[in-house]
Amino acid sequence: VIEMVHHFCRGQSYDNASNMAGKYSGLQAHLKKENPLIHYTPCAAHSLNLVGVNCVDNCCEEVNSFF
């Protein structure tokens, strides 16, 4: 376990994995218990990647069903 000074931390950002970002049992929830001033923001790059992957998957399905 890494010892970390929580009282200086004000923000945290992770990918959208539930073990890190979980509201009730993820790392962000545990850190929020230690310091209520810490705010969680989902990683914009990971979120955008998930949107892109979902769009490509849906477009491929539609093209295949059309032809």
From TrEMBL:
Domain of life of the native organism: Eukaryota
Designated name of the protein: DUF4371 domain-containing protein
